[in-house]
Design goal:
The complex is a heterodimer of chains A (96) and B (234).
Chain A lengths: L6 E2 L5 E3 L7 E7 L5 E4 L8 E6 L11 E7 L2 E7 L9 E6 L1
Antiparallel strand pairs in A: 1-2, 3-8, 4-7, 5-8, 6-7
Chain B lengths: L5 E3 L5 E4 L3 E2 L1 E8 L13 E5 L7 E6 L6 E5 L7 E6 L6 E7 L15 E3 L5 E4 L6 E8 L6 E5 L6 E7 L2 E6 L4 E14 L2 E15 L16 E7 L4
Antiparallel strand pairs in B: 1-2, 4-9, 5-8, 6-9, 7-8, 10-11, 12-18, 13-17, 14-18, 15-16, 16-17
Classes of the chains: A mainly beta (96), B mainly beta (234).
Protein backbone atom coordinates (compact mmCIF):
# COMPACT_ATOMS: atom_id res chain seq x y z
CA UNK A 1 0.00 0.00 0.00
CA UNK A 2 1.55 3.28 -1.05
CA UNK A 3 -1.28 5.50 0.22
CA UNK A 4 -4.14 5.58 2.71
CA UNK A 5 -4.49 4.58 6.35
CA UNK A 6 -3.91 1.26 8.07
CA UNK A 7 -4.72 0.57 11.73
CA UNK A 8 -3.77 -2.53 13.72
CA UNK A 9 -5.13 -3.59 17.09
CA UNK A 10 -3.02 -4.39 20.16
CA UNK A 11 -2.52 -7.95 18.89
CA UNK A 12 -1.16 -6.82 15.56
CA UNK A 13 -4.33 -7.68 13.67
CA UNK A 14 -5.18 -5.32 10.85
CA UNK A 15 -8.60 -3.81 11.58
CA UNK A 16 -8.72 -1.01 9.03
CA UNK A 17 -7.14 -0.60 5.66
CA UNK A 18 -8.09 1.09 2.42
CA UNK A 19 -10.83 -1.43 1.61
CA UNK A 20 -12.62 -1.19 4.97
CA UNK A 21 -16.03 0.51 5.04
CA UNK A 22 -16.72 1.95 8.47
CA UNK A 23 -19.76 3.82 9.67
CA UNK A 24 -19.89 7.54 10.28
CA UNK A 25 -22.73 9.27 12.08
CA UNK A 26 -24.01 12.21 10.07
CA UNK A 27 -26.73 13.28 12.45
CA UNK A 28 -29.49 12.43 14.86
CA UNK A 29 -32.83 14.02 15.63
CA UNK A 30 -36.04 13.28 17.48
CA UNK A 31 -38.87 12.21 15.21
CA UNK A 32 -41.92 14.44 15.54
CA UNK A 33 -45.35 12.83 15.64
CA UNK A 34 -46.20 14.03 12.17
CA UNK A 35 -44.88 12.60 8.92
CA UNK A 36 -41.96 14.57 7.62
CA UNK A 37 -38.57 14.64 5.98
CA UNK A 38 -35.00 15.67 6.63
CA UNK A 39 -32.45 16.51 3.95
CA UNK A 40 -28.70 16.21 4.41
CA UNK A 41 -26.35 16.63 1.47
CA UNK A 42 -23.69 14.57 3.25
CA UNK A 43 -25.77 11.42 2.71
CA UNK A 44 -24.40 11.29 -0.83
CA UNK A 45 -20.89 10.72 0.58
CA UNK A 46 -21.53 7.02 1.15
CA UNK A 47 -24.05 4.21 1.53
CA UNK A 48 -26.90 5.16 3.82
CA UNK A 49 -27.78 3.45 7.13
CA UNK A 50 -30.15 4.43 9.90
CA UNK A 51 -31.05 3.27 13.37
CA UNK A 52 -33.81 4.01 15.84
CA UNK A 53 -32.28 4.80 19.22
CA UNK A 54 -34.33 5.06 22.36
CA UNK A 55 -37.14 3.06 20.80
CA UNK A 56 -38.56 -0.17 22.13
CA UNK A 57 -37.83 -3.01 19.72
CA UNK A 58 -40.45 -5.62 20.47
CA UNK A 59 -43.35 -7.54 18.96
CA UNK A 60 -45.49 -6.23 21.80
CA UNK A 61 -45.33 -2.63 20.67
CA UNK A 62 -48.33 -0.64 21.88
CA UNK A 63 -47.40 2.56 20.07
CA UNK A 64 -47.22 3.66 16.51
CA UNK A 65 -44.06 2.63 14.65
CA UNK A 66 -42.01 4.89 12.38
CA UNK A 67 -41.44 3.72 8.82
CA UNK A 68 -38.32 5.33 7.37
CA UNK A 69 -37.28 5.65 3.74
CA UNK A 70 -34.62 7.46 1.73
CA UNK A 71 -34.91 9.23 -1.62
CA UNK A 72 -31.76 10.95 -2.80
CA UNK A 73 -30.45 12.86 0.17
CA UNK A 74 -33.84 13.12 1.87
CA UNK A 75 -34.94 10.89 4.75
CA UNK A 76 -38.71 10.59 5.10
CA UNK A 77 -40.86 9.01 7.77
CA UNK A 78 -44.45 8.10 8.29
CA UNK A 79 -46.13 6.42 11.24
CA UNK A 80 -47.69 2.97 11.09
CA UNK A 81 -50.06 1.12 13.37
CA UNK A 82 -53.47 1.49 14.87
CA UNK A 83 -52.30 2.63 18.30
CA UNK A 84 -53.03 6.22 19.23
CA UNK A 85 -49.82 7.14 21.04
CA UNK A 86 -46.44 8.01 19.59
CA UNK A 87 -43.17 6.74 21.03
CA UNK A 88 -40.08 8.82 21.68
CA UNK A 89 -37.65 7.95 18.89
CA UNK A 90 -34.23 9.35 18.07
CA UNK A 91 -33.31 8.66 14.47
CA UNK A 92 -29.56 8.19 14.10
CA UNK A 93 -28.31 8.11 10.53
CA UNK A 94 -25.07 7.97 8.68
CA UNK A 95 -23.13 6.45 5.84
CA UNK A 96 -20.49 3.79 5.40
CA UNK B 1 -11.60 21.20 3.70
CA UNK B 2 -8.34 23.12 3.86
CA UNK B 3 -7.32 21.66 7.22
CA UNK B 4 -8.19 18.87 9.62
CA UNK B 5 -8.26 15.11 9.10
CA UNK B 6 -9.97 12.87 6.61
CA UNK B 7 -9.11 9.28 5.69
CA UNK B 8 -10.36 7.90 2.41
CA UNK B 9 -10.34 4.34 1.18
CA UNK B 10 -10.14 2.86 -2.27
CA UNK B 11 -12.83 4.21 -4.55
CA UNK B 12 -12.88 7.47 -2.64
CA UNK B 13 -15.23 6.43 0.15
CA UNK B 14 -14.61 8.25 3.39
CA UNK B 15 -13.55 6.27 6.46
CA UNK B 16 -12.77 8.91 9.07
CA UNK B 17 -13.75 12.57 8.86
CA UNK B 18 -13.09 15.00 11.66
CA UNK B 19 -16.60 16.40 11.23
CA UNK B 20 -18.47 13.13 11.81
CA UNK B 21 -18.20 10.69 14.65
CA UNK B 22 -17.55 6.99 14.04
CA UNK B 23 -19.36 4.14 15.72
CA UNK B 24 -16.80 2.00 17.53
CA UNK B 25 -16.77 -1.25 19.48
CA UNK B 26 -16.95 -0.21 23.14
CA UNK B 27 -17.78 -3.61 24.70
CA UNK B 28 -18.23 -7.21 23.74
CA UNK B 29 -19.07 -10.51 25.38
CA UNK B 30 -20.78 -13.86 25.10
CA UNK B 31 -23.95 -15.23 26.69
CA UNK B 32 -26.06 -18.35 26.50
CA UNK B 33 -29.79 -17.60 26.45
CA UNK B 34 -31.35 -20.03 28.94
CA UNK B 35 -34.45 -18.37 30.37
CA UNK B 36 -38.08 -19.16 29.64
CA UNK B 37 -40.08 -17.03 32.04
CA UNK B 38 -43.47 -18.42 31.06
CA UNK B 39 -45.00 -21.55 29.58
CA UNK B 40 -45.76 -19.89 26.26
CA UNK B 41 -42.22 -18.82 25.48
CA UNK B 42 -40.76 -21.04 22.79
CA UNK B 43 -37.12 -19.95 22.61
CA UNK B 44 -34.69 -19.15 25.43
CA UNK B 45 -33.65 -15.60 26.23
CA UNK B 46 -31.18 -13.70 28.34
CA UNK B 47 -31.00 -10.03 29.24
CA UNK B 48 -27.91 -7.85 29.07
CA UNK B 49 -27.88 -4.26 30.29
CA UNK B 50 -25.59 -1.29 29.88
CA UNK B 51 -25.30 2.05 31.61
CA UNK B 52 -24.01 5.45 30.66
CA UNK B 53 -24.16 4.99 26.91
CA UNK B 54 -24.89 7.51 24.14
CA UNK B 55 -26.73 5.91 21.18
CA UNK B 56 -25.73 2.24 21.57
CA UNK B 57 -26.15 -0.21 18.72
CA UNK B 58 -25.90 -3.91 19.59
CA UNK B 59 -24.88 -6.57 17.08
CA UNK B 60 -25.23 -10.29 17.81
CA UNK B 61 -24.44 -13.62 16.23
CA UNK B 62 -24.67 -17.27 17.22
CA UNK B 63 -21.19 -18.69 17.81
CA UNK B 64 -22.16 -21.84 15.90
CA UNK B 65 -23.04 -19.64 12.93
CA UNK B 66 -26.24 -21.50 12.09
CA UNK B 67 -28.73 -20.70 14.86
CA UNK B 68 -31.12 -17.83 14.33
CA UNK B 69 -30.74 -14.98 16.78
CA UNK B 70 -32.54 -11.73 17.38
CA UNK B 71 -32.98 -9.21 20.16
CA UNK B 72 -35.59 -6.88 21.53
CA UNK B 73 -34.77 -3.75 23.52
CA UNK B 74 -36.19 -1.45 26.13
CA UNK B 75 -36.68 2.17 25.24
CA UNK B 76 -33.57 3.77 26.65
CA UNK B 77 -30.47 5.16 25.02
CA UNK B 78 -28.46 5.72 28.15
CA UNK B 79 -29.26 2.58 30.14
CA UNK B 80 -30.65 0.06 27.66
CA UNK B 81 -31.56 -3.55 28.29
CA UNK B 82 -31.39 -5.96 25.39
CA UNK B 83 -33.19 -9.31 25.43
CA UNK B 84 -31.29 -11.76 23.27
CA UNK B 85 -33.25 -14.64 21.79
CA UNK B 86 -31.68 -17.79 20.38
CA UNK B 87 -33.47 -20.32 18.23
CA UNK B 88 -32.13 -23.25 20.24
CA UNK B 89 -31.03 -24.39 23.68
CA UNK B 90 -27.43 -24.04 24.87
CA UNK B 91 -26.35 -21.76 22.04
CA UNK B 92 -23.49 -19.39 22.71
CA UNK B 93 -24.27 -15.92 21.39
CA UNK B 94 -21.56 -13.32 20.87
CA UNK B 95 -22.58 -9.70 21.32
CA UNK B 96 -20.83 -6.53 20.22
CA UNK B 97 -21.82 -3.11 21.53
CA UNK B 98 -21.04 -0.21 19.22
CA UNK B 99 -21.43 3.39 20.30
CA UNK B 100 -19.91 6.81 20.02
CA UNK B 101 -16.82 7.03 22.20
CA UNK B 102 -17.33 9.30 25.18
CA UNK B 103 -14.71 10.78 27.54
CA UNK B 104 -15.41 8.13 30.21
CA UNK B 105 -14.41 5.47 27.68
CA UNK B 106 -10.88 6.84 27.40
CA UNK B 107 -9.59 7.70 30.86
CA UNK B 108 -6.02 8.90 30.99
CA UNK B 109 -3.51 9.26 28.20
CA UNK B 110 -1.52 6.41 26.76
CA UNK B 111 1.17 8.58 25.19
CA UNK B 112 0.69 6.93 21.83
CA UNK B 113 -2.01 6.14 19.27
CA UNK B 114 -4.50 8.35 17.49
CA UNK B 115 -7.50 10.26 18.76
CA UNK B 116 -9.46 12.62 16.54
CA UNK B 117 -11.85 15.23 17.90
CA UNK B 118 -14.33 17.46 16.16
CA UNK B 119 -14.81 21.18 16.60
CA UNK B 120 -17.08 20.55 19.58
CA UNK B 121 -14.25 18.58 21.24
CA UNK B 122 -16.19 15.33 20.91
CA UNK B 123 -14.23 12.19 20.10
CA UNK B 124 -14.66 11.31 16.43
CA UNK B 125 -12.23 8.38 16.35
CA UNK B 126 -10.27 6.71 19.14
CA UNK B 127 -7.55 4.20 18.40
CA UNK B 128 -8.36 2.05 21.45
CA UNK B 129 -11.69 0.94 19.97
CA UNK B 130 -12.27 -1.00 16.80
CA UNK B 131 -14.40 0.73 14.15
CA UNK B 132 -17.81 -0.53 13.14
CA UNK B 133 -17.40 -2.15 9.74
CA UNK B 134 -20.78 -2.07 8.05
CA UNK B 135 -21.40 -4.47 5.20
CA UNK B 136 -24.94 -3.53 4.34
CA UNK B 137 -28.46 -2.75 5.40
CA UNK B 138 -31.10 -5.25 4.43
CA UNK B 139 -34.88 -4.97 4.66
CA UNK B 140 -37.49 -7.63 4.14
CA UNK B 141 -41.26 -7.43 4.12
CA UNK B 142 -43.48 -8.94 6.75
CA UNK B 143 -44.43 -12.59 6.22
CA UNK B 144 -41.29 -13.47 4.35
CA UNK B 145 -39.32 -16.09 6.23
CA UNK B 146 -36.35 -18.36 5.62
CA UNK B 147 -34.98 -16.01 3.06
CA UNK B 148 -31.38 -16.57 1.89
CA UNK B 149 -31.06 -12.94 1.28
CA UNK B 150 -27.61 -11.48 1.54
CA UNK B 151 -24.29 -12.61 0.13
CA UNK B 152 -21.23 -11.80 2.23
CA UNK B 153 -17.53 -12.33 1.77
CA UNK B 154 -16.38 -15.89 2.47
CA UNK B 155 -14.12 -16.41 5.45
CA UNK B 156 -15.49 -13.40 7.32
CA UNK B 157 -17.65 -13.30 10.46
CA UNK B 158 -20.80 -11.19 10.58
CA UNK B 159 -23.17 -10.00 13.29
CA UNK B 160 -26.61 -8.48 13.06
CA UNK B 161 -28.15 -5.27 14.34
CA UNK B 162 -31.92 -5.28 14.80
CA UNK B 163 -33.24 -2.01 13.43
CA UNK B 164 -36.86 -2.99 13.08
CA UNK B 165 -38.36 -6.19 14.39
CA UNK B 166 -41.34 -7.82 12.81
CA UNK B 167 -43.24 -11.00 13.43
CA UNK B 168 -45.05 -13.74 11.63
CA UNK B 169 -48.25 -15.10 13.21
CA UNK B 170 -49.51 -18.49 12.16
CA UNK B 171 -52.56 -20.22 13.48
CA UNK B 172 -53.88 -23.70 12.91
CA UNK B 173 -56.85 -25.82 13.85
CA UNK B 174 -60.57 -25.29 13.37
CA UNK B 175 -62.45 -25.99 16.56
CA UNK B 176 -61.10 -28.48 19.07
CA UNK B 177 -57.35 -28.32 19.47
CA UNK B 178 -55.88 -25.26 17.89
CA UNK B 179 -52.85 -23.09 18.29
CA UNK B 180 -51.00 -19.95 17.47
CA UNK B 181 -47.25 -19.72 16.87
CA UNK B 182 -45.65 -16.33 16.70
CA UNK B 183 -42.26 -15.95 15.08
CA UNK B 184 -39.64 -13.27 15.00
CA UNK B 185 -37.71 -12.60 11.89
CA UNK B 186 -34.19 -13.49 12.96
CA UNK B 187 -30.78 -13.77 11.30
CA UNK B 188 -27.92 -16.19 10.90
CA UNK B 189 -24.84 -16.62 8.75
CA UNK B 190 -24.17 -19.85 6.93
CA UNK B 191 -20.93 -19.77 4.99
CA UNK B 192 -21.02 -16.75 2.74
CA UNK B 193 -24.76 -16.14 3.02
CA UNK B 194 -26.76 -14.27 5.63
CA UNK B 195 -30.22 -15.71 6.07
CA UNK B 196 -33.23 -13.91 7.44
CA UNK B 197 -35.04 -16.79 9.05
CA UNK B 198 -37.63 -17.45 11.70
CA UNK B 199 -37.41 -17.89 15.44
CA UNK B 200 -40.51 -19.06 17.35
CA UNK B 201 -40.94 -16.96 20.44
CA UNK B 202 -44.48 -17.68 21.58
CA UNK B 203 -46.61 -20.81 21.23
CA UNK B 204 -50.16 -21.15 22.43
CA UNK B 205 -52.23 -24.31 22.15
CA UNK B 206 -55.68 -24.98 23.48
CA UNK B 207 -59.31 -25.30 22.52
CA UNK B 208 -60.77 -23.02 19.92
CA UNK B 209 -64.49 -23.64 20.11
CA UNK B 210 -65.87 -20.67 18.32
CA UNK B 211 -63.61 -18.79 16.05
CA UNK B 212 -61.07 -19.37 13.35
CA UNK B 213 -58.70 -17.95 12.39
CA UNK B 214 -57.32 -16.61 15.60
CA UNK B 215 -57.06 -12.86 15.93
CA UNK B 216 -53.95 -11.58 14.24
CA UNK B 217 -51.64 -9.39 16.23
CA UNK B 218 -49.57 -6.37 15.43
CA UNK B 219 -51.31 -4.07 13.02
CA UNK B 220 -47.97 -2.61 11.99
CA UNK B 221 -46.57 -2.62 8.50
CA UNK B 222 -42.91 -2.02 9.20
CA UNK B 223 -40.54 -4.49 7.55
CA UNK B 224 -37.79 -6.44 9.23
CA UNK B 225 -34.61 -4.38 8.95
CA UNK B 226 -31.03 -5.30 9.75
CA UNK B 227 -27.62 -3.72 9.66
CA UNK B 228 -24.97 -6.35 8.91
CA UNK B 229 -21.62 -5.76 10.57
CA UNK B 230 -18.27 -7.44 9.88
CA UNK B 231 -16.87 -8.57 13.25
CA UNK B 232 -14.01 -10.70 11.99
CA UNK B 233 -11.24 -10.78 14.65
CA UNK B 234 -13.37 -8.62 16.96
Amino acid sequence: MSYGLRIWDENGILILDTTTRISRVLGEFALPSTPGSHTDAAISSGAFWWYMAGFTISPYITTKVPVVSLSGNTISWIWSGAAANFPSVTLVYGVY
Amino acid sequence: MAYGFKAMGEGGFIQIDENYRNYQLVARGSVTPNEKPNAFQASPTINISFTGRKVPMLAIRARDGVTNVVYSRTSSNINPTFTIWAGGEGVLVDWYLFDLVEPQDVPGLLGYGMRIRNAANEIVYEHRYKPQRVTGMVSRAINLVNDPSWAVAPGRVYAFVTVSLTEEVRSYGVGGTAGVIRYFHAARQVGSTVFLGELPYNIWTGTNPSSYPFPQFGGHSQPSIWVIVDVTNY
